[in-house]
Amino acid sequence: MRKLQSFLAVFIFLLLVACAAPAAAPDHALADRPADSSQSTAVKSGSVVLDMSCKTDADCAVKDVGNCCGYYPACVNKDSPTDPAGVRAQCQSKGMVGVCGFPSITSCQCRSGQCTAAGSGVMPIEDPAPVPNPVK
């Protein structure tokens, strides 16, 4: 019975993660990141270009870059402009919608010249309380 409970807890967690994770990023919100830092580190977001470049962790910040559902945090250069309202307006004008949900980003780090989220961004699931035996 304990194995079944554990399986169900993991299954429900995976379903929740799949529902909360954004679908493939819309072209207007996030473009493919370059493979190395020698390439451009700019990403198009709404009517502005996001700067993802960095030299140290202090160059990076969590900012709302927006998506078709609204708020969407991302690690970008601390001086990079963002335009979440422009992203939403672009989504509305094209009749696009997105999968709502966003990563939980608490801090950013500079890796290979790119601002990235520090840690996994996924909250760990706790072992649920044991289910009492049903009354017979």
The overall average pLDDT, rounded, is 71
Helix content: 10-25%
Structural class of the helix and strand makeup? alpha+beta
What is the CA–CA distance across the termini?
16 Å
Low-confidence stretches: 10-40, 122-129
Name the helix and strand elements from N-terminus to C-terminus, one letter apiece: HEEEEHEE
The coarse silhouette is flat
**Proportion of residues in extended strands:** 15-25%
What count of domains describes the coordinates? 1
Total helical segments: 2
Strand order of the largest sheet: 1-2
Determine Rg (CA atoms, Å).
19 Å
Total strand segments: 6
**What does the largest sheet look like?**
2 strands, antiparallel
Structure report:
The structure is a single chain. This protein has one domain. The two termini are 16 Å apart. Strand 1 and strand 2 form a beta hairpin. The protein has 136 residues and is an alpha+beta fold. About 29% of the residues have low confidence. The chain is flat and about 65 Å long.
